[in-house]
Amino acid sequence: MSLEVRDLRVTYGTGAAAVPAVRGVDLSLAAGQKLGVAGESGCGKSTLALALLRLLPASARLSGEILLDGEDVLTMKWGRLRAVRWAGASIVFQGAMHSLNAVRRIGDQVAEPLLVHGRATPAAARRRAGELLEHVGLPAARAAAYPHELSGGQRQRVMIAMALACDPKLIVADEPTTALDVMIQAQILRLIEGLVTEQSISLLMISHDLAVLADTCDRLAVMYAGRVVEEGPARQVFEAAAHPYGRALSSAFPRIGDPASRRAPRGLPGDPPDPAGLPGGCAFHPRCPVVVESCAERDQQLREAGPGHRAACVHVGSVS
Ligand SMILES: Nc1ncnc2c1ncn2[C@@H]1O[C@H](COP(=O)(O)OP(=O)(O)OP(=O)(O)O)[C@@H](O)[C@H]1O
User: Fold this and answer.
1) How remote is the CA of residue 65 from the centroid of ligand 1, in Å?
2) Which CATH class is domain 3-311?
3) What is its main location (predicted)?
């Protein structure tokens, strides 16, 4: 399934209290491709993920287009949207403990999407839940367990099994490994990568960790203050970012499986701006190591930084 996001804007609340969380995002994900979206906490990643399936709270106002195989999610009728959720596109959230129902057996929870969408009889759904659990590396007998009886990694596997239940064409994974330790994180990433590749599922994976995304995805988009400031081929963005924020993110985390890169994180000075009071010009300029005078006045559009690689920085196309 292809995903095309055009000029997506999401604002929480209205008037003086309005929070512009996503400010004109364009993204493109071809069928079967893996796109990573990176950025620090608060840059609008989760808002973007939730918007894709119209799962935002009522206080959020949206505009733009979200095209799934050309069909706009934002104008879809409710019945169609219901069908698209799970079967078309499904979502894996961070922190499986909060997303799973603590008082229901995991097998029943994995079977639930199949029953809700009328895809299987209760007996067939139970059988399928066992198969799905095995598919994500858990014994089918674990279907009888409750979430608290599983480890964090096992719970995240259950979430992935649930996401796969209705044979989605697109999976949106929002920080799927953040709460896990590094070894388990690597296993879960390999699992997601293997499953989506094997079943030609498109993947949109969100993380604050650019290294995780570079290991898993074909392309990367870097978000800052509600906008995409860089996008391009994953290795290129990770190893030779064109935007100073992309460069800062790529040096902030060690790479999984690469002990040589386990240096101390080189954090950025300061914090990301509050979306309710963004600085003028380029929103990154107060933290930027290569800021020039005009950055405080003018924001930059994405422009060519290499083949299939774009960045929104005044230096792109001039000094590196
Ligand atoms: N329901 C809401 N009402 C008002 N503001 C919100 C709401 N949800 C998120 N925000 C604000 O929107 C901005 C973007 O938040 P979002 O959760 O999308 O960022 P994020 O990059 O996913 O961060 P994190 O990784 O911490 O979840 C933040 O400033 C956040 O405080």
Assistant:
1) 20
2) alpha beta
3) membrane
